[in-house]
Amino acid sequence: MDGRKRSRLGVCVRLPVLLAILGVLTWYAVERKANSSAQPVPACIREAPPALAILPGSQLTTIVGASGVPDLVGKGTEDVEGVQSASAVWTDDPPPPEGAPPAPQAEAAGYEIRWWTHERAHFLADIFLFRSAADAHRFVAEAAGARCHDRGFAAAAARPAGARRLLWRNPLGFLQADVIFARDRRVYRIGQVPPAADASALPYVGPWLQPATEAVACKLPQAGCG
Question: What is the pTM of this model?
Answer without folding.
Answer: 0.79
